[in-house]
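JOB MANIFEST
job_type = single_chain_structure
chain_count = 1
residues = 154
[input]
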Amino acid sequence: MKKIIIFTIILTCIWGCRTSKNTEKNTIFKTHLDFETVKEQTINKYWKLISIHGVDCEMNEGQPQESFFIMRYDSTFSGFAKCNSFQGNYIIRPGNHILFKNISSTLKFCQYSDKEYQITRLFDNVNSFSVKNDTLYFLKDKTEQLAIFKSIVF
């Protein structure tokens, strides 16, 4: 009986140490919000693009404005990549799942077409998200971080 109790205590200690090592990244990926909180924290906010796949996204010379997007209460969104505006619809589902669809954009020539392509592809590839401290994380399958956006207040 003593051996079983000691084994249980050791197992509990080991398990407790393993689960207490959550990094901020893992905490971000596991954050689920109810829909009212999602609306309050994400909709009708100006989301400035900070990084894509871990690479900082800065304005280029001659770029007319920064890359951003806004989701509205009517389930539409719009934004700006490097040279072109884009818009479409979105659906938020329980568990922080998101789907962007019916995406269209203007077709101006863009000398930064590779970067613009990366930005517009984000909306095709994202399927979940997390929000923490006015920062929006686009995720793929809740584990792969695709992009980081920062809420900008004017």
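[summary]
The chain has a mean pLDDT of 82.
The radius of gyration is 20 Å.
exit_status = 0
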